Amino acid sequence: MSTSEADGTASGEARLGRRVVGLFRPYRARLVLIGLAILVTAGLGIVNPFLTQAMFDDALFAPGGARLGLLGALVAAMVVIALVSGLIGVGQTYLTTVVGNRVMQNLRDRLFAHLQRMHLGFFTQTKTGVIQSRLDNDVAGVQSVVTETASSILGNVVTVVASVIAMLALSWQLSLVAFVLMPVFILLQIRVGRVRRRVAASTQASLSDMSAITQESLSVSGVLLAKVFGRQEHEVDRYRTENARQTDLQVRQTMTGQSFFAVVQAFFAITPAAVYLVAGYVGTGTGGALLSAGTLVAFTTLQSRLLFPAVQLLRVSLDVQTSLALFSRIFAYLDLVPAITDPPGARTLDKEHAAGSVEFRDVWFRYPPSEEDGDADALPAAPTWALQELSLRIEPGQLAAVVGPSGAGKTSLSYLVPRLYDVDRGAVCLDDTDVRDLTLSSLAEIIGMVTQDTYLFHATIAENLRYAAPDATDAELEAAARAANIHDRIVSFDLGYRTVVGERGYRLSGGEKQRLAIARVILADPRILILDEATSALDTVSERLVQHALQTVMSGRTTIAIAHRLSTVLAADVIFALDGGRLVEHGTHAELLARDGLYAKLYAEQFGAGQIEARCADGVRFRDGEVIRQEPQAEVA
Ligand code: ADP
After folding, report:
1. What angle do CA 166, 169, 173 make, to 5 degrees?
2. Residue 96, SS3?
């Protein structure tokens, strides 16, 4: 995930710098205004020492005695300059704050939107905490630099340059004394910056590791696991180690450069003394005509005015170096290419015009290797295909049940239809069009998925349902909930559809969540439904409610069900039995039982005879190996 910009070479740095500057491009007009404001205030700031010089030499201690008229004018000028600078300063702060924060806003928006477009594989391979850390810690890390740096650099550079020019104008000899050590500082500063940048990169990496640990071990499942296995101490140790590293790095980051600043500050404190000394020998002492008292006062005033912007500039340039490390982490994420996107000229196919046939044509598929799977240079391991040589066809409106032992490739098969992953060879076709030639938004509209564990947002039931159909009316919500057998349960809550569920809300039972998921997909009204039936057994009542709900949602749509319920395999128009990523058998329940192959074996194991009556749907009976199938519609009534 490293980019060429992160490589630390000069050209890499330049590229990275240009890219950061590019973030400010949309705000050019405002930046010009800011620049003008800075130039004006800096210019006004330089005028002051000259006024001081005039004040001393021409007004207060003029050869013929104090000149009060001039004194009044000079004082008035000083007051006006101070007021005007203050006013411009306010406007400038407003503009820089706006620009800086807008740049950050754009960066966060782009990063979030980009991550949304990443394919599923990216998220299965990256720890959630790590992704969150990029959005939170890294973006927050550059925030201060972005919001303050631009104006700080410009303002200070202008002040420094103007001061230096004014100092030279006042006395080049004194300037020589004042600047003799400058080059040393600049070299030192470049070195310190490099070190700081390296430390900053380690700090961010450590922060991201800590986020990942927190995310993993403080989630409900993580805490549960640690408690059950008595591993809390281990988790605490893990966190403690990373936390200690983090502290060390933070201290190092702050302290790198601090002694350098101390030297700079001491230098600025000492040089005025040196200037007086030199002035004594060169100027006023011998002959006295070279330097006036006013010049000397103005010069040292300028010099002390230089201290603040100079230190500020050094500090900012260190901050910039630090933030470059963060920027390269952010850009690395922005540069990730979403593996699954709309091809050029992708077709849209709307729901109304989709018939709903699904075909796998000699499909070969394997999961992309994870980044953590060892050495990229090593020879690729022998490919393990999750699916191979897979060809099957499901006609519009059919219910296809996919069965097979765990790891057979059932879930992988279901992922290929909505392009959560792409095939390696062959094609998956929807209405005889390769899914890769259709827009992703068409696929999302046509295909609906009910997964094993239902994800609910921390929001009201109504909001969770409307996630599928934002424009659904209350009546439509209710109709869907009724069809999914969940309406009665919803209205039994005090707040009804306004009950907050999900993460920290009311916890629904497994069956209730499944039925809510079914209601959600009914609202979405897809042409093709992919259903991953939950493996966990529900009690008989819940089971029946879920089964009824499923029958409703399946009717009139093409359904691919990863089947764990007897009712589903019995009702299926066609059953596909997978093993080791291959299709080994297909046919109806009766045909496959008669073949006495994989399906017959699975059937005996998974849908063992004893449980059959209890788990059987109302409409389906089973007696002595014979199936009596009834029309699904009749069962629901
Ligand atoms: P099933 O749903 O039939 O249990 P899957 O389709 O989940 O089987 O898995 C098929 C194969 O692909 C298995 O060998 C599994 O280990 C592998 N697999 C599943 N998900 C991933 C993944 N995200 N990355 C790599 N391999 C995976």
Report:
1. 110
2. helix
Report which protein residue has its CA nearest ligand 1's atom 5.
409
Sign of the dihedral through C-alpha 284, 290, 292, 293: negative
Residues 388, 364: contact at Cβ < 8 Å? yes
Using DSSP, state whether 375 is helix, strand or coil.
coil
Let me know if residue 345 belongs to a domain.
no
Pocket flag, ligand 1, residue 407 (CB < 6 Å) = yes
Predicted pLDDT of residue 189: 74
Q: Same domain, yes or no, for 395 and 425?
A: yes
Q: Are 310 and 153 in contact (CB under 8 A)?
A: no
CATH number, residue 537: 3.40.50.300
How far apart CA 42 and CA 32 sit, in angstroms, is 15
Q: Exposed, middle or buried by CB within 10 Å (0-12, 13-18, 19+), for 2?
A: exposed
What is the whole-number distance in angstroms between the Cα of residue 121 and the centre of ligand 1? 12
Distance CA 91, CA 37 (A): 8
What's the mean pLDDT when you consider all of the chain? 81
Residue 398 CA to ligand 1 center (angstroms) comes to 25
- Are 198 and 258 in the same domain? yes
Protein residue with its CA nearest to atom 22 in ligand 1: 367
> What is the atom index within ligand 1 of the atom nearest the CA of 384?
14
**What domain count does the chain have?**
2
* Cβ(102)–Cβ(402) below 8 Å: no
Predicted confidence (pLDDT) per residue in 389-408, tens digit: 999 999 999 999 999 888 89
Same domain, 291 and 406: no
Say which CATH number the domain at 35 has.
1.20.1560.10
Instruction: Using DSSP, state whether 391 is helix, strand or coil.
Output: strand
Q: What is the pLDDT of residues 579-606, one digit of tens each?
A: 999 999 999 988 988 998 898 888 888 7
Domain, as residue range, for 518: 351-370+384-630
Tell me how far the alpha carbon of residue 577 is from its chain's centroid. 40
402 inside domain: yes
Residues 325, 361: one domain? Answer: no
344 located within any domain: no
Structure tokens at 202: 């380690």
What three-state secondary structure class fits 292?
coil
One DSSP character per residue, 495-536 reads TGGG-EESTTSBPPPHHHHHHHHHHHHHHH--SEEEEE---S
CA of 135 to the centre of ligand 1 (A): 29
179 with 131, same domain?
A: yes
Residue with tokens 């400058």: 182
Q: How far apart are CA 409 and CA 403, in angstroms?
A: 9
Specify the DSSP element, H or E, that contains 227: helix 220-228
Confirm whether 346 is domain-assigned: no
CB-based contacts of 591, cutoff 8 Å, min separation 6: none
CA–centroid distance, residue 527 to ligand 1 (Å)? 26
Letter for the amino acid at 99? V
The secondary structure of 329-363 as a DSSP string is HHHHHHTPPPSS-PPTTPBP--GGG----EEEEEE
Q: Answer yes or no: is pLDDT of 276 > 90.
A: no
Same domain, 84 and 218: yes
Beta carbons within 10 angstroms of residue 113's beta carbon = 9
Ligand 1 pocket check for 451: Cβ under 6 Å: no
